[in-house]
Amino acid sequence: MSTDTIVRLPDQSTARLPKVNFITKENGLLSWLLTGDHKRIATLYLISITFFFAIGGALAGLIRLELLTPQSDLMSTDTYNKVFSMHGIIMVFLFLVPSIPATLGNFLMPLMIGAKDLALPKINLLSWYLYIIAGGMILYSMMTGGVDTGWTFTVPLSTHYVNTNVITTGLAIFVAGFSSVFTGLNFIVTIHKMRAPGMTWFRLPLFVWSNYAASILMVLGTPVLAITLVLVVLERAFGIGVFDPAKGGDPILFQHLFWFYSHPAVYIMILPGMGVISEVISTFSRKRVFGYTAVAFSSVAIAVFAFFVWEHHMFIMGVSNYSTLVFSLLTMLVAVPSAIKIFNWSFTLYKGSITFETPMLYSFGFMGLFTIGGLTGVFLASTGTDIHLTETYFIVAHFHFVMVGGMLMAFLSGIHFWWPKWTGRMYPEKISQLAALITFIGFNLTFFPQFILGMLGMPRRYAAYPPEFQVLNVFSTAGATILGIGYLLPILYLTWSLKYGEIAGDNPWQATGLEWQIQSPPLTENFPEIPIVDYEAYDYEWLERKEKEVTRVG
Amino acid sequence: MSAHNDSHAMQPHGGTGHDHDPNEQDVHDTLNHVVSPVIYITVAAILLVLTGVTAAVSFVDLGVFNAVVALFIACFKASIVVLFFMHVKYSSKLTKLTLFSGLFLFCVLIALTLSDYTTRAWGRW
Amino acid sequence: MSDSTTALHGPHSDPPVVHGAHTAHEHPPYQRHHFASMEQQVDTTSFAMWLFLLTEIMFFGGLFCSYLIFRNWYYPAFVAASHQLSIKEGTANTAVLIVSSFTMAMGVWCAETRRKGALVLCLCLTFVLGLVFLGIKYDEYHEKYEKHHVPSWHYSTKSFTDPASDPEVHNAYPDDKPLPLDMARHTEVYFGLYFAMTGMHALHMIIGISILGFMIFRARAGAYTNGHVTFVNNFGLYWHFVDIVWIFLYPLLYLISRHA
């Protein structure tokens, strides 16, 4: 393992954080709560998302504790149903969907394209408030009994058979959906209309492309979830009959409408993560991303194809066999652009000058774990195998590999990579590398046994299981404990670094990209003067020439 | 010299030779070609007439074509509202592309959902 | 202020100017500071409005998709239930909305040509027409309530299993046969969709009318006739969209098959 590092920090004895930056510009709670500054809103989001992640994580801990033993002895099955449902709802809607777009995306988008702010700052703030309202409603729902239908609200269970807080939670997710729509809308408008002079589409960092693709999904897909939830609420409250077989309704219609959003939702979750990986891998191999155009177009291709595959969540639900053929084929196709990205990242690494700072460690973890998760997705795309694997722990393992092994690792990679830009301070390298390693080990120990459990037939969403599955479940819970430590450590040392971290300077990673050419933390207006871009993305030669010609002031 | 030629990108603030009269009305003309009221009146009249037509046609038995005709008239009405009242005829390619993508996705939702419903009764295989 | 930004330009760039000094205020007062020109602001907000309308297309799209499926499955029930709706009121409402779209479009023209009084008039007409639409809708809903055609609210299939018990509709459609009980029960799904779709539409109307009220107030103060047309323009887009939704709801709900 190389001890080289590309980190170049200013002389710590004389370095200071810039006196004027977006954090110090104005003081007082209201200046934060009524801000239009995208960087402050991103900070607000980061704090709130971490809070909800902790709650979702605690619920996961409860699940794994229960599954240590084959009997449902820690909690009743009804309670267990509520625990995994709330875990899913909080993790999907309050963590994964907004995570990178609302935090890193909000912070970086205008910086990367050379703009002073997002196109619609007030809408951005509204988006955060809607998120908080949704979070509050979900907390309220949890404290008054939660829901036990699973995060998928399957009807007629959710509309006719349970007496839990389906309506409150459904409406909370409706509000969260609008938060998501407004973020996506803001991004699309900003990227189209607010690029700096010379910043053509194909000079944009790939992070921007990925968020653009994810934003298209947010804007077009989320409203269908919204109407689905409205119909569930109407069915539950007023019995309109659309999902009630007794009145002639069709429960499968709910699933069509629900998955029409929820499948693109998983791409909303992963695409921004892929954007982070492009940036990190390029910086830590000191090489431009191989096949820029392919990666950019594959992001958009994923976004387009994402809308054509939703029925693969419904293969066993009673849909027509002929439609399963169509959707099975389409699902195989949607794996292709993702694979293209993995190939391109691998070729970026080839013959690059690779160093192993923490963001890079997380990115390596992403590439391996996302590949495994993605491949197992192909097994599930094939209808024949899906019949045996669906609704078992195989699915649980599959989506945790792509979401946690993929997306969450990308999120941590991005947070570490841009932490110096956001706060002006570096995080402590050794402990962060250790945390990355702990996370990787914990993750594999938690979720790999679940693939085997699924193959052996253990169903998902069950509190009790046959005793022969216990050993693998114990491994999984042990892994979850390690994983928990791995996630706790960054929260601790990143907070620590706010006061005691080394001063980072403008560009500790010597990265390309407009955000690294300005001070850390940035000014409120980002750029004292709007830059004019006349170089391609990831142009390390340009960076070298620039470093030679200018000495930085303060 | 810096590139000032990209009209949709931001200009460096405070550059020389950049006179912008805030009272200029033509700032909007590049975007909103002002549509004449004559067009609006014509479109409104057509819409009202077509409303009457579609109501009348529903009283005639055309079998399955009742639905086809009704939807066709509705689509035509919607199109003229979109093109003229909403100015899409005079709008940028981006606006047209945006609208098209929404309609396309709506069609995907309908078509692929129907691929399940229409084939359910095709019998076992 | 750091002058490290000179590195971003080529060697022949303009000297940096400190932004924020309002001595040379080159842009209109209603231009936001993160935009470089009014054209960009107008362009951007218009595009944003179109994207919002896209979300509305997909939102109503889910409802239309559900409608399509159940109309195919339960066509006789849909026909019979549709006869319960008043074609007079439905057609009247369609006409009302078309005229209101016209007055709204004229309002945009007035704003663009800086005719303040005419703008206020157009907005007021649009407002009133919107209220008329809601009034007619309320009347229709009330009638449904009285005839026990509101899903789950003492819903009654009597009008469909025994058409003679409903003389008003029976005289208009004497050839309607009584439906078998299971098909008659499916009329509840029709009314469920009817209330969901027209109710969602009415909610959008209410929001639109509220914003119109605000706009009339602002228009009287001259806020939209000084060159800053975007708010009126973008609201007009929203209003026309709501009209388009009704243009589709009308034939789908009211005109399923009115022939003998």
Distance between the termini of chain A: 35 Å
Helix count of chain B? 3
How many E-type strands of chain B? 0
Q: H/E order of the elements of chain A? A: HHHHHHHHHHHHHHHHH
Proportion of strand residues of chain B? under 5%
Helicity range of chain A:
55-70%
The structural domain count of chain A equals 1
CATH superfamily placement of chain A: Cytochrome c oxidase-like, subunit I domain
CATH class of chain A: Mainly Alpha
What average pLDDT do the residues of chain A reach? 94
Estimated radius of gyration of chain A? 23 Å
Total number of helical segments of chain A? 17
* Coarse morphology of chain B: flat
Could you name the ranges of chain A where pLDDT drops below 50 across 5 or more consecutive residues?
none
Give an overview of the whole structure.
The complex is a heterotrimer of chains A (554), B (125) and C (260). With 554 residues, chain A is mainly alpha-helical. Helix content of chain A is 66%, strand content 0%. Chain A is built from 17 helices and no strands. In chain A, helix 2 packs antiparallel against helix 16 (470-500), helix 4 (99-113) packs parallel to helix 7 (166-193) and helix 4 (99-113) runs antiparallel to helix 8. Chain B is mainly α and 125 residues long. Chain B has 3 helices and no strands. The radius of gyration of chain B is 23 Å and the shape is flat. Helix content of chain C is 67%, strand content 0%. Classes of the chains: A mainly alpha (554), B mainly alpha (125), C mainly alpha (260). Chains in contact: A-B, A-C, B-C. Chain A binds chain B through residues 114-115, 192-199, 220, 224, 252-253, 256, 260, 307-308, 310-311, 319-323, 326-327, 529-530, 532, 534, and chain B through 2-4, 6, 8-13, 94, 101-102, 105, 108-109, 112-113, 115-117, 119-120, 122, 125.
